[in-house]
From TrEMBL:
<dbReference type="InterPro" id="IPR011629">
    <property type="entry name" value="CobW-like_C"/>
</dbReference>
<dbReference type="GO" id="GO:0005737">
    <property type="term" value="C:cytoplasm"/>
</dbReference>
<keyword id="KW-0378">Hydrolase</keyword>
<protein>
    <submittedName>
        <fullName>GTP-binding protein</fullName>
    </submittedName>
</protein>
<feature type="domain" description="CobW C-terminal">
    <location>
        <begin position="239"/>
        <end position="333"/>
    </location>
</feature>
<dbReference type="InterPro" id="IPR036627">
    <property type="entry name" value="CobW-likC_sf"/>
</dbReference>
<dbReference type="InterPro" id="IPR003495">
    <property type="entry name" value="CobW/HypB/UreG_nucleotide-bd"/>
</dbReference>
<dbReference type="InterPro" id="IPR051316">
    <property type="entry name" value="Zinc-reg_GTPase_activator"/>
</dbReference>
<comment type="similarity">
    <text>Belongs to the SIMIBI class G3E GTPase family. ZNG1 subfamily.</text>
</comment>
<dbReference type="GO" id="GO:0016787">
    <property type="term" value="F:hydrolase activity"/>
</dbReference>
<keyword id="KW-0143">Chaperone</keyword>
<dbReference type="InterPro" id="IPR027417">
    <property type="entry name" value="P-loop_NTPase"/>
</dbReference>
<dbReference type="Pfam" id="PF02492">
    <property type="entry name" value="cobW"/>
</dbReference>
<dbReference type="GO" id="GO:0000166">
    <property type="term" value="F:nucleotide binding"/>
</dbReference>
<dbReference type="Pfam" id="PF07683">
    <property type="entry name" value="CobW_C"/>
</dbReference>
<keyword id="KW-0547">Nucleotide-binding</keyword>
Length: 335
């Protein structure tokens, strides 16, 4: 927190990090947590799906990460958010019975399917939260390759752009200059007030996203006059997630093969799939990342002696055939 922040407003600044599934939010979070800025950041992560994969992919995830996995942050778990923010403040003050946690700002990573408006609303309508925390900015990461489709397709991606104070046009390496310029125009037409930065691997100067005092309630009320009153919002009900877990080692080739079969027909409706895998003959965890038709896998660190190697995999999309996936996943156990 800068000195000016502290003098003028003693509340803890909060940044909401949003962006559609797979846009680069966790990559940005890792960048922020490893950048040399001398600030202590408490992170709250909310994921769509039963089990958090992201927390396993965040660097130094052991201390600072608070998970909320039982629903979408903008609806069912908003009570959880309020509770965590309250608990965090107790912990900061070293209140009896709570472990002391030092932090001078909070970063909330929302699920790719969250509408940021109700999350932002929490900082104005909940009196206790509003007394302790100040919303600094909403930062939205945009996947330059897939944004066109996501914006045509759904309400959430549009809200994420419309409500942003800062837009990171990420994955700039995957598109031509012409396509990037077109997308930038589209983003400007949807939200002329937001600052836009083009990024690769969400690499951005931290000073452009933290402590910028960009959230302006008046402006948000112009976009959405009902901002402070809204109770719930509508999700695309057809979007669902499937989760798989297996302790026996898997055969990576088999997984890639069945996913390719699925994606050749359902790539558009398969938004996001990712996992931490236990692959036969590999000493490291294998991180699998997929967005629509694009997927990669790579080993990261070795399994620790304290861990039982296992695979966890989540798929998020429309019209997912659960029985088929369960059968295919089971068939990936290595011979
Ligand atoms: N080519 C390319 N890939 C990127 C870039 N930024 C991130 N990625 C990759 O995109 C994938 C998704 O990135 P994440 O940071 O996990 O995205 P996310 O928004 O947190 O995803 P969800 O939490 O599932 O919504 C990963 O494989 C990243 O390595 C980029 O600028 N260029």
């Amino acid at each position: 927190m800068s000195k000016i922040d502290q003098v003028s407003d003693p509340r803890i600044p909060v940044t909401i990090l949003t962006g559609f599934l797979g846009a680069g939010k966790t990559t940005l979070l890792n960048h922020v947590l490893t950048a040399n800025h001398g600030q202590k950041i408490a992170v709250i992560v909310n994921e769509f799906g039963e089990v958090g994969i992201d927390n396993q992919l965040v660097v130094g995830a052991d201390e600072e990460i608070f998970e909320m996995n039982n629903g979408c942050i903008c609806c069912t778990v908003r009570g959880d958010l309020i509770r965590i923010l309250g608990d965090l403040m107790f912990a900061k003050e070293g209140a009896a019975g709570s472990k002391k946690v030092e932090f001078d700002r909070v970063l909330i990573e929302t699920t790719g399917l969250a509408d940021p408006a109700p999350v932002a609303q929490t900082f104005f309508v909940d009196e206790e939260v509003a007394n302790l925390y100040k919303l600094d900015a909403i930062v939205t990461v945009v996947d330059a390759k897939h944004a066109g489709q996501h914006l045509d397709d759904g309400h959430e991606a549009q809200e994420q752009v419309a409500f942003a104070d800062v837009l990171l046009l990420n994955k700039i390496d995957l598109v031509s200059e012409e396509d990037a310029a077109k997308l930038e125009l589209r983003l400007k037409s949807m939200n002329g007030a937001a600052k836009i930065y083009r990024t690769q691997q969400s690499q951005i100067d931290i000073n452009h996203i933290l402590g910028i005092g960009a959230f302006d309630l008046e402006k948000k009320l112009e976009i959405d006059p009902g901002f402070l009153e809204e109770e719930a919002h509508e999700h695309d009900d057809e979007v669902a997630s499937l989760f798989f877990r297996e302790e026996r080692p898997l055969d990576l080739r088999k997984m890639e093969r069945f996913l390719q079969v699925w994606l050749s027909e359902h790539g558009t409706d398969t938004f996001r799939y990712k996992g931490v895998l236990h692959i036969k003959g590999v000493k490291q965890r294998v991180i699998f990342q997929g967005i629509h038709m694009l997927f990669t896998s790579a080993p990261d660190r070795e399994w620790k002696a304290t861990e039982t190697p296992h695979s966890e995999f989540v798929i998020i999309g429309r019209n997912l055939d659960e029985a088929w996936f369960r059968e295919q996943f089971a068939a990936c156990v290595a011979d």
